[in-house]
Give the backbone structure.
Amino acid sequence: MTSDMQAEKVQAARWFKTLRDDIVTAFQSLEDSHSVGPMNDKSAGTFEVTKTTRHSDDGTDAGGGEMSVMRGGRVFEKVGVNISTVFGTLAPRAQAAMAARKGIEGMAEDPRFWASGISLVAHMQNPHCPAVHMNTRMFWTPHAWWFGGGSDLNPCLEYEEDTEHFHKTQKVFLDPHGSEHYPALKAWADEYFFIPHRGRARGVGGIFMDDRCTGNWDADFKLTQDIGRAFLPAYQPLIEKRRVDDWSEADKDTQLVHRGLYAEYNLVYDRGTKFGLETGHDANAVLMSLPPLAKWV
């Protein structure tokens, strides 16, 4: 049995909110400063913040969060940076899935849980600008706690130098925690974001971890924080560089087809999507990751 870890829960939830605020500020600045290149003559988009709520089966409060979403911007076609802190009891199916995957005993006798995190997905107007996904999270039950998260790049038009920058930056942030982390988390991302029914990866990879619990909460939390801190330095320069590039109708068509691939993965395989829907969280928040437009051929 673990302790209630109230202080650690508060610290983690506050960090996820701080990270959200930093990313939203940076993304809004990218949108506002777009003065050269395609769509610079359009009005800048703005983030809309919406509260999300979750209720237990008996109607009692079970947490919630905030959706920060921009739609129809001149740089960002759709971007969401969501935070949530939810709690309650796991339904039997979620208990069984967690017990099977993690080997946690006692879930049926005490199925309480608490989870907090940040989840981000950005779909861009310019096909030369890569889509991206990032999340970090903490999960607690009376029987175990763990961290998870990562970020991965999803370009429809691939540039080797962009992929190299994204990966190299993440390595810089992970190496202080041990040189073994980056290659292990990169390999984990390559495996996790593979689409079996298409026989290919969703994008060009990144880093991913789950079930991170060494027994040293402070060390695991600091690693999780640096996964989050790596995101803007890894991603923002790519948008600053590519948002000025002209695109063709063929480029846009390639983007829409690639988005279909992204949607397939999130609806069929993504564990976060499945968990959010099974535990009754706001469906709009859970499905925020889906692109505004996509195409199948």
